[in-house]
Amino acid sequence: MSGVIDAGPRVREAVTVALDILEREGRDALTMRSLAGRMGIRAPSLYKHIRGKEELDALMIAEGFRRAGAALHEASDAAPPGSTRTALLLAVAHAYRAWALAHPHLYRLMTGGPLPRDRMPEGLEAWTAEPLVRAAGDPDLARAAFAFAHGMTILELDGRFPPGADLGGAWTAGVEALAR
Amino acid sequence: MSGVIDAGPRVREAVTVALDILEREGRDALTMRSLAGRMGIRAPSLYKHIRGKEELDALMIAEGFRRAGAALHEASDAAPPGSTRTALLLAVAHAYRAWALAHPHLYRLMTGGPLPRDRMPEGLEAWTAEPLVRAAGDPDLARAAFAFAHGMTILELDGRFPPGADLGGAWTAGVEALAR
DNA sequence: TTGACAAGCTAACACCGTTAGCCTAGCTTG
DNA sequence: CAAGCTAGGCTAACGGTGTTAGCTTGTCAA
């Protein structure tokens, strides 16, 4: 609760517009003034609807979890029944990477710092992580797989692997090792 | 070259003081004004020595790579000869985690975004990564291990694992899987 | 009809990185 | 030794950031 559910339409509009600016133009382009401008109002008026930038970030992060979670669940559900754990984890990992690469700015916002858990709808975080947790089996391995997936993703997004490195190979090597 | 080697003493002092502020008080506390203040000068005077904040960041990042690399090499060199790859990777991973947890703000600065490679001393990045690469063996597995280590580390630093989760277990599970 | 309130506005504040332009002490050079 | 250059400080200021205070106005309820 408390998330977007009981939020007025103007708040939902603000989050939608903010996500649009973020994804199209990047983090630096999303300011209280630019957001207000796109909504046809002045920056201070935003504060009639939203407490401040931290809350806006939290609302965008929650929406990001919903969207990413949907992609992961979809991939997980699409796996043929009786798949090996390796195949299942491979499918989820592929969806994870694909979603993040398609929404780099939002992914960075969602993962680049502490999670504002007190502003997040209850259960959302766990629901988003569910497909990965299920595919990994053991809790320790689930955490390891999550760390691996996030590491691969953020390092790729930030261009920190050597140029020309075969990241597909690293992904499959890691997933196969972790799913054993 | 071009790093700190040919830098004047005032630049080296600036980097030292900046690292001190960063590690003690966090990223937000490190501003051009606060840095200048600690050096007994005004902010604009900093620009007589340093091009701007990006260059300061790059200098701090390079110094971070030197320090982290020293810790990793030390751990790697301390491993008894004839160690299994699992034992070696475990030792390096432990040193990686320990160093990052001891220097959270610097670690975040070093890894939280694209690496300014054109401002980094040549070969430093590869030297820092060397112990991990050597312990992993295969290049694909080295990248996977790097991603895993960074993922575990940054997620722990940001408190993104469930409170009370046994991260030691996740570390060993991941390392053992990757070193097989 | 009146009053309350939601939702806009302008002006302003503190802080950020950064630039322009001035001053002065000290070294170099004719 | 005098002249001049330069390194390295300074103040003032700019544009940008998130944010607050306080005013106005339109709409809806009593």
Query: Which regions of chain A have little confidence, pLDDT < 50, spanning 5+ residues?
Result: 1-5
Supply the number of helical segments of chain A: 9
Any idea what the radius of gyration of chain A is? 18 Å
What class would the helix/strand composition of chain A place it in? mainly alpha
Backbone shape of chain A: elongated
Compressed to H and E, one letter per element, the order of chain A equals HHHHHHHHH
Oligomeric grouping of the chains: homodimer
Q: Please report which band the strand proportion of chain A falls in: under 5%, 5-15%, 15-25%, 25-35%, 35-45% or over 45%.
A: under 5%
Characterise the protein shown here.
Two copies of one chain form a homodimer. Chain A has 180 residues and is an all-alpha fold. In chain A, 70% of the residues lie in helices and 0% in strands. Chain A contains nine helices and no strands. In chain A, helix 4 packs parallel to helix 7 and helix 5 packs parallel to helix 8. Chain A is elongated and about 55 Å long. The N terminus of chain A is likely disordered. Chains A and B meet through helix 8 and helix 9 of A and helix 8 and helix 9 of B. Chain A binds a DNA duplex (30 and 30 nucleotides) through helix 3.
